[in-house]
Amino acid sequence: MFEILLLIYLFPIMVIAMLLVKLAIWIVRNLFKFVLWLVRTLFVLLGKGLLLAFAFVVAKKPFNHPPDR
């Protein structure tokens, strides 16, 4: 009799614990995906910024002016 009562009381607790573990795994997985997206976006923006800075440096050089004599 005690075992049946124990199972009746523990079953909802086990279900809730299982759902909490699933929720924790889902949160960790989505957080990992978000961090990867953030790092990838950061590197893309850094690359575009370096390309823009290089374009500004190249644009300031007088390539199309005649040489000074």
Automatic annotation (TrEMBL):
Keywords: Membrane, Transmembrane, Transmembrane helix. It comes from the Bacteria. The chain crosses the membrane at residues 7-28, 34-59. This is Transmembrane protein. It comes from Bacteroides faecis.
